[in-house]
Task: inverse folding
């Protein structure tokens, strides 16, 4: 009839859905002695080693898709991380994998917004920078950015170039505070 409820297990048990509720209810009485016990049992049941390996590979082998915007790539990457709660990767590794999996044009955008070399910033600065840039990219028309790699630079209109420069200057001001 499930393990006894403790104050720390109540939020966990209330967050369970469908099969996980049945799993929790079938746990032998007194089989869980701490919240960490519950987490370990839950992860071993729903995230066996083979699945963790597959999901971890999605994270470590991240590569931005051909027509994926920076925002879409970041959201796609964060979903990969969220799908593997026990990936055990440090934030520095996660940021490095994301940055190195980006198309060169988007790495250049991030470096320009940084005002230098992105990977020389602190982890918190790197994460916040990506969040802010992708939030901005999501709110503007990214169709020109998506086609950037397939266009010749000389075909870019002056208005478009000035807009990109203006956006980069604005991002640089935000991040230099």
Result:
């Amino acid at each position: 009839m499930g393990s006894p409820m403790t104050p720390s297990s109540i939020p966990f048990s209330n967050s369970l859905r469908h099969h996980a509720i049945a799993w929790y209810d079938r746990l032998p009485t007194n089989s869980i002695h701490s919240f960490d016990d519950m987490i370990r049992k839950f992860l071993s049941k729903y995230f066996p080693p083979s699945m963790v390996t597959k999901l971890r590979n999605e994270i470590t082998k991240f590569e931005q898709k051909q027509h994926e915007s920076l925002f879409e790539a970041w959201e796609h990457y964060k979903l990969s991380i969220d799908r593997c709660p026990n990936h055990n990767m440090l934030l520095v590794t996660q940021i490095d994998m994301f940055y190195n999996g980006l198309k060169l044009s988007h790495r250049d955008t991030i470096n320009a917004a940084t005002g230098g070399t992105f990977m020389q910033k602190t982890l918190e600065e790197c994460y916040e920078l990506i969040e802010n840039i992708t939030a901005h990219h999501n709110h503007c028309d990214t169709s020109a950015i998506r086609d950037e790699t397939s266009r010749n630079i000389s075909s870019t209109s002056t208005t478009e170039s000035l807009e990109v420069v203006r956006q980069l200057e604005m991002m640089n001001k935000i991040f230099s505070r």
Notes: The mean pLDDT is 77. The longest helix spans residues 158-175. Residues 9-46 form one domain. DSSP finds ten helices and no strands in the chain.
